[in-house]
DNA sequence: GATGAATGAGGGTTCATTCAT
DNA sequence: GATGAATGAACCCTCATTCAT
């Protein structure tokens, strides 16, 4: 069996994403991790602290999965389109739970400045990644916005329909930009 | 002073939107409403029940405010652009709290089917409203997606920057569609 | 059986005095009072809140017991001497637990301003009571100081020896003041 | 840097006196001492054990400071009066935290016999010191009682007022005893 | 001689809900 | 129609201590 800290993080990766932050109690985390309560607090200052580690780890995981998923793409256009396929892939894998960053953003009061900062910085990194791939600033933000929208609306309707539709839209945008 | 039921709803309209569902306790609601606990449960079966009433009332309020805000528009194009101005207006009025429907969607476990259904139906109504104004189905969904994205990202960054950018994008889309 | 609030207070009167504030947990209080935890917090905002009620109630109790004990005294001198007998009486009754106000003063960090204020005000009332009985300000404070000292040292040595000695001293002071 | 054991004791000297026994956790002690937890328990059997060492060290420190402070005195009377000045000096230096022995006495349940014994023995030593300086047993206890009272009441009111008053009283007592 | 990891028990507090009146 | 009292379950967190290395 792995070390407690690792077990806690593994459990948290699942629970925070699937159930949300407020719906996941420390008690469930330690039970699922087979760790004592005091042991948990030896490794994490507070639940908020764990949340930040979660957000960091989630971002690393999500980005690497995305990179991996689109790595076969030959052109920039293909990269973008595959990114949307990735959303479909993740929705099916994770049961349409949407974006952990936006979910937690909705849950956490704005007084928790640290967490908000982390969420923003990760989301900004994603937006920047879109920008890097395209010279046209306007176009990249345009696609980024559609991307975020796809995440949110597919969670909302528990369906990939709008993602597929968006793929056509994006294809059109990229064509007309050449 | 108005009737208890009304007072509860008025309080709830503020608290659920500003603090979220899980961060708002029944105790705060009844205290702010100057209503007894037993009285609360006489009017609402449960907190979930209140949540549904909240969602309905919030939708009615939000749509009517939107309609009112864009009522002066002469053309369809103007209506759309004014809709985005409305988002800016609301962000400033409500301190970038985003969309109550999406916020609660993030907070509530998917087992609470009833609430999810209500959220979906209201959001679908909004999407349909976009569709009604435009013959082009693809275009209206395109704009709808940008609209949702603007709500989410402006909440995230606590800034109207992307909304303004999106207005330009939408303007372009509407022009080229004629 | 009496009402929960009363039961809680009765339990608290015993436990805070006998065990001290920090050594008495909410759990023990509610168990001994046969009251649920949530019920406790319906009646008392916090443990600190309960502490303040305890201090008030303790003062009222202690003063009335004192008044009652010395009520038979014919002269001022007799009143004073009987006050010291009262300390002996209470030590035997309460197993040399000393003064709840001073005990809690020792336990509570000075940041808890409210509690410190209450302690001071009750102790000041006692000092003032000594002053009222004697024109000579210096003498009354002198006796007051010996009184406090008797409480503290009898708790310390778990013995009434010094109280008895002090009675002689006070007798001498009062004689020479005439 | 000094040895772990010494560092722990130095930290404890400050924390137990300033915050009290129950309000000072082992964690704070080892952190402030830059010592590992296991290392702590190698040097001290338990927190109670540390407490006893603290009491011993505190007594040695306090007495030596007192001796030093009053060492310039030419007469017995002066020695006594300077002792009260010492209380004022210490109150200002240590922010009116009173007597560690009495504070801990208030905090510790009487079942902890060992600690109570140590407290008593140190306090008895102080009382004996007063006795040594004066042939008159009654008078020395009288002054000793006023001394204890001054410690307690100055902590209570966070003021040296009563100490100054007591100095006059003691001066009177010593005069009339010659 | 020194350490970081791990713990059982308990700390105080809040939750949404029910019930007797 | 309205209420205050009462609750079981859960909340996040800290305590002094032990153990394997």
Strand and helix layout:
The structure is a homotetramer of 178-residue chains.
Chain A: H1 4-19, H2 26-33, H3 37-43, H4 47-70, H5 76-94, H6 100-107, H7 113-132, H8 137-157, H9 161-176
Helix pairs in contact in A: 1-2, 1-4, 4-7, 5-8, 5-9, 6-7, 7-8, 8-9
The structure holds a DNA duplex (21 and 21 nucleotides).
CATH architecture of the largest domain in chain A: Orthogonal Bundle
H/E series of chain A, N to C?
HHHHHHHHH
Q: Could you give me the name of the CATH homologous superfamily of the largest domain in chain A?
A: Tetracycline Repressor, domain 2
Oligomer: homotetramer
Helices and strands of chain A: which structural class? Answer: mainly alpha
SS field, number of helical segments of chain A: 9
Classify the beta-strand content of chain A into a percent band.
Answer: under 5%
Amino- and carboxy-terminal Cα gap of chain A: 54 Å
- Name the helicity range of chain A: over 70%
**For the record, what CATH class of the largest domain in chain A applies?**
Mainly Alpha
Number of strand segments of chain A:
0
Major sheet size, sense and barrel closure of chain A = none
Largest interface: A-B, 35 and 35 residues
| Average pLDDT figure of chain A | 95
Pfam family, one (chains A, B, C, D): TetR_N
Protein name (chains A, B, C, D): TetR/AcrR family transcriptional regulator
InterPro entries (chains A, B, C, D): Homeodomain-like_sf (IPR009057), HTH_TetR (IPR001647), Tet_transcr_reg_TetR-rel_C_sf (IPR036271)
Organism (chains A, B, C, D): Chryseobacterium gallinarum
């Amino acid at each position: 069996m792995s070390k407690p800290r690792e077990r806690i993080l593994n459990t948290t990766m699942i629970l925070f994403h699937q159930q949300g932050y407020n719906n996941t109690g420390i008690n469930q985390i330690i039970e699922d991790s087979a760790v004592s309560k005091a042991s948990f607090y030896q490794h994490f200052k507070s639940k908020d602290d764990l949340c930040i580690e979660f957000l960091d780890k989630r971002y690393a995981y999500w980005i690497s999965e995305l990179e991996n998923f689109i790595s076969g793409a030959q052109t920039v256009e293909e990269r973008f389109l595959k990114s949307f396929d990735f959303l479909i892939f993740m929705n099916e894998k994770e049961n349409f739970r949407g974006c952990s960053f936006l979910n937690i953003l909705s849950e956490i009061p704005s007084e928790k400045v640290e967490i908000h900062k982390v969420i923003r910085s990760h989301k900004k990194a994603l937006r920047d990644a879109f920008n890097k791939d395209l010279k046209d600033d306007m176009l990249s933000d345009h696609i980024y916005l559609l991307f975020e929208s796809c995440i949110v609306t597919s969670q909302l309707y528990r369906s990939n329909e709008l993602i597929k539709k968006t793929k056509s839209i994006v294809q059109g945008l990229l064509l007309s930009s050449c």
